[in-house]
Amino acid sequence: MPTHVSPEQVRRWIDDGAVREVTEHDDEATEFNFELTLSRLPVHVIKEETWGPLRVVGKTGFDADRVRALLRDDDDRQILLQRLGPMLAATPGFYTFLDGEGNGCAFRNAESMQTEYRIYPDEASQQALMDGLMATASGMRYVRNTLAAMLPNRVPAETEANLDAVVEDESDRDESTRDDSAEDAAAEDEAGEEG
Hints:
Order of helices and strands: HEEEEHHEEHH
Oligomer: single chain
Helix content: 40-55%
CATH class of the largest domain: Alpha Beta
Number of helices: 5
CATH architecture of the largest domain: 2-Layer Sandwich
């Protein structure tokens, strides 16, 4: 027999060791809507009706001009679909490509991709919820990483600052190594001239 899953129960099921920043959104269209951060990605747990399923929803935006150009190019889009296909098939639930208005569309016209996993009341548990959250976040991360890998000269935004620091450190190290080498060579030349 189906059971009612309350927002309090869902909140208790969310593993705070894996999930960050749980926020409840007030929305008249839903019974509850929790937004949480998992692996630095926003994922929602939504319940629209008292006896309805829990919806675990993730959305990946294709908002950069270079990503849109990639999707509009027939050859690049085919390569991208070949790379994403196995992940999309393995991720529980379903996915939908959305246009700028949030309507389903062909991949070439997509502005975002939404993944959704539904947990029905008679199967709801902490394990089912956390499995759905983890799978959704993993799928979103895979899509983002694949897009980043396919974009020429693209450095993921979260690593740009770290990469800049590493490049500066390496430049400083290279210059100091070059200076030391130059000084050593000059000292050897002077010693050779004296001897």
